[in-house]
Specification:
The protein has 99 residues and is mainly alpha-helical. The protein has one domain. It contains four helices and no strands. Helix 1 crosses helix 3, helix 1 packs across helix 4 and helix 2 runs antiparallel to helix 3. The longest helix has 22 residues. The chain starts with a helix and ends with a helix. The model has no long low-confidence stretch (mean pLDDT 83).
Length: 99
């Protein structure tokens, strides 16, 4: 169960990174198109494995979306990716409870 929570947390971070990627004007159009394709695959009724198989259907959506997100990140210039990740880290630290 712990691994599932860790996977969800990582996927959430990827989604937030893609959100920042899509809203940054310096992002190459190809990277934006790949990120949009990932989002469309998640909501699309056409899947490699049907969603009627509860676990497998959802896993294929998540895995393919994650792979497309990684491809979108590879299409970014290294400096821009570092800036977007730093922005995401700054926001997550601002919202985390202090010990």
């Amino acid at each position: 169960m712990f691994k599932l929570g860790l996977l969800f947390t990582r996927f959430r971070k990827e989604l937030l990174l893609m959100w920042h990627l899509l809203h940054d004007g310096r992002t190459p159009i190809v990277a934006k198109l790949v990120a949009i394709a990932a989002a469309l695959y998640i909501v699309s009724p056409f899947d490699l494995i049907t969603d009627f198989l509860p676990i497998l259907g959802w896993l294929d959506d998540g895995i393919i979306a994650l792979l497309l997100f990684k491809l979108a990140q590879r299409l970014l210039p290294d400096q821009l990716l570092a800036v977007l990740k730093a922005k995401l880290d700054a926001k997550s630290q601002a919202h985390s409870p202090r010990s």
